Amino acid sequence: MSRIAVLVPGKIHERVLTRLKESFDVVEANPSTLDAEAAGKIRGVAVSGTFDSAAIDSLPKVELISSFGVGYDGVDAKHAATKGIIVTNTPDVLNDEVADTAIGLLLNAVRELPRAENWLRAGNWKPGQNYPLSRFSLKGRHVGIYGLGRIGQEIAKRLEPFKVKISYHTRTRHATAPYGYYPSLKDLAEAVDTLISIVPKTHQTHKTINADILSALGPDGVFINVGRGWTVDEEALAAALKSGTIGAAGLDVFYNEPNVPASLLDLPNAVLLPHLASGSVPTRNAMADLVVDNLVEWFGKGRPLTPVPETPAKG
Ligand code: NDP
Asked: Class assignment of domain 5-91+282-301?
């Protein structure tokens, strides 16, 4: 009996391919290159990145699109839902890693640790010569978290032992979160001196971190982004860092990856990482397993493990 065909339309974690091949016929191809017969056999998709409405429409028998990563903004989940197609993502298994990275970025931005290390490696540490004191400290800060979902809550938990004040902004207030709630991002930015963004890429979050919000943070302000670069007006951020409107930033994500604007690269008070918040071997393996397990569960037992909210869950 022939096995179910699963399309892998582009580069994906090697473990996804290895495990998929144990259970499925894996077709590694761009869907636009498949002829009608081949496209008609595809029932599942495993994708890391983009799978738009045209790609979805080109596969008449597809039932489930399993997307690598918790952010699934590259997959047209709304369009898939209109056709009864399930989209899954990989939530929760990366919460700890991403939250750890957020804390690392925060400490690095506030205490200038990467710059200090570069200074040492460049041979500047000599008798009588010490790296300058960092202008900022984490002590006594008021940290605002923009997005208190799965990852935002883990960031907040990690911040508690640092004895900082914690507040947040989301559209819906959390009944149980023991932190100050601000119904608007502007109100949060005015109240805090440190802002961590961990919201998804949606129409509503586009460039919401703008000149106005940065100005509200103030000259001691620190901005950390582990969500999506889409959320930030990068020109406004670079200008704010350059002029001293805010003090420092730590960024794991950028508007047009992998292109990082020179205006940010040139700044000494920005710590910049190449979108690696979930990028450890154990965490990426767990994400890869969840991509495959969603397909295995759906085709074996008729229920997806982690459907996205847009998906009409079946089973
Ligand atoms: P969740 O869906 O669990 O949480 C999202 C949070 O954002 C919720 O608290 C939600 O609250 C809030 N939110 C959404 N839209 C808005 C809005 N318009 N205004 C205010 N708050 C909003 O997602 P996760 O915590 O699992 O992941 C968050 C995002 O982090 C992912 O979508 C992904 O883009 C990014 N990410 C980045 C990684 C990296 O490598 N740097 C790794 C993993 C994730 P409410 O709905 O009440 O507004």
From this structure: alpha beta
CATH architecture of 95-272: 3-Layer(aba) Sandwich (3.40)
**303 annotated active-site:** no
ipTM: 0.99
Q: Where are the domains of the chain?
A: 5-91+282-301, 95-272
pTM assigned to the model: 0.97
8-37 per-position pLDDT tens digit: 999 999 999 999 999 999 999 999 999 999
User: What pairing do the DSSP bridges indicate for beta strands 180-181 and 86-88?
Assistant: unpaired
The DSSP string of 16-50 is HHHHHHHHSEEEES-GGGS-HHHHHHEEEEEESS-
Name residues contacting ligand 1 (CB within 6 A).
Answer: 70-71, 91, 94, 98, 147-152, 169-172, 198-202, 204-205, 226-228, 252-253, 275, 277-278
Report which of 107, 170, 113 is spatially closest to residue 139, judged by C-alpha positions. Answer: 107
Whole-number Cα distances in Å, 151 to 94, 154, 178, 189: 8, 5, 16, 20
Ligand 1 centroid from CA 138, angstroms: 24
- Six token digits for residue 3: 């096995």
pLDDT tens-place string over residues 211-247: 999 999 999 999 999 999 999 999 999 999 999 999 9
Max alpha carbon distance in the chain (Å)? 77
Closest CA to 220 of 242, 237, 245: 245
- CA neighbours within 13 Å on the CB side: how many for 52? 3
Q: What is the pLDDT of residues 253-282, one digit of tens each?
A: 999 999 999 999 999 999 999 999 999 999
